[in-house]
Specification:
Length: 119
């Protein structure tokens, strides 16, 4: 397995894009001269003015304690999403999270929905 592509090979991900909704998402990297000297380089300009709600729904055969275990199990996914969306960390007040679990013996995995909040 390619270490740059978690959870499957490149060919598997290409044949199943519905399983990897963020696989094609690329955060544009600004050229070094596009930012002022004192500006924070951790936050992308596109993320600075947009609020988002991230809804994470897990399908699993046995439900976890919803208060802390479910959130802890989804922490690596949240960290990857925050990085892809261009925010500096997952505690940014412009991002809210909803965690849901569905008991399922047939489908297993995590569904991610990212909603932009218009103000």
């Amino acid at each position: 397995m390619n270490p740059k592509i978690p959870y499957g090979s490149e060919s598997f991900r290409a044949k199943n894009p519905h399983l990897f909704p963020l696989a094609g998402v690329r955060t544009p990297k600004p050229k070094s001269n596009e930012r002022g000297e004192g500006e924070d380089r951790r936050v992308e300009a596109s993320a600075s003015s947009v609020r988002r709600c991230v809804v994470l729904t897990t399908y699993r055969p046995r439900l976890l304690d919803s208060h802390d275990n479910a959130r802890q199990a989804l922490k690596p996914i949240v960290d990857a999403l925050v990085e892809k969306l261009g925010f500096s960390n997952d505690a940014d007040e412009r991002i809210t999270y909803e965690y849901h679990q569905i008991k399922s013996n047939t489908i297993q995995g995590t569904h991610i929905l990212i909603k932009e909040i218009l103000e």
